[in-house]
Amino acid sequence: MGFVGVNDKIAMEQEMPWGERPVAKTLYELLSNTASKFPNHNAISYQIFSGPQDKAETYTWSELLARTCQAANLFRSLGVGEKDVVAYVLPNCNETVTTLLGGAIAGIVNPINPLLEPEQIASILRETEAKVVVTLKPFPKTDVAQKVAEAVRHAPGVHTVLEVDLNHYLTPPKKWIVPLIRPKIENKEQLAHADYKSFYRELKKQPTTLTFADSTEDRVACYFHTGGTTGMPKVAQHKYSGMIYNGWLGHTLLFTEDDNIMCPLPLFHVFACHVILMAAVASGAHVVFPTPQGYRGDGVFDNFWKLIERWKISFIITVPTAISAKMQRPIDADVSTVKTAFSGSAPLPLELFRRFEEATGVTIVEGYGLTEATCLVSCNPTDGEKKVGSIGIPFPYTDVKIIKGTADGLVECATDEIGEICISNPGVFAGNTYTETEKNTDLFYKDEYLRTGDLGRVDEDGYLWITGRAKDLIIRGGHNIDPAEIEEALLAHEAVAFAGAIGQPDAHSGELPCAYVELVGGASVTEDELMEHCRVHVHERAAIPKHMTILDELPKTAVGKVFKPDLRKDAIERVYNAALEQAGVSARVVSVIDDKKRGLVAQMQANGASDAQIGEVLDGFVRPWEHAEAQTVAA
Question: What percentage of the chain has pLDDT greater than the value 90?
Answer without folding.
Answer: 73
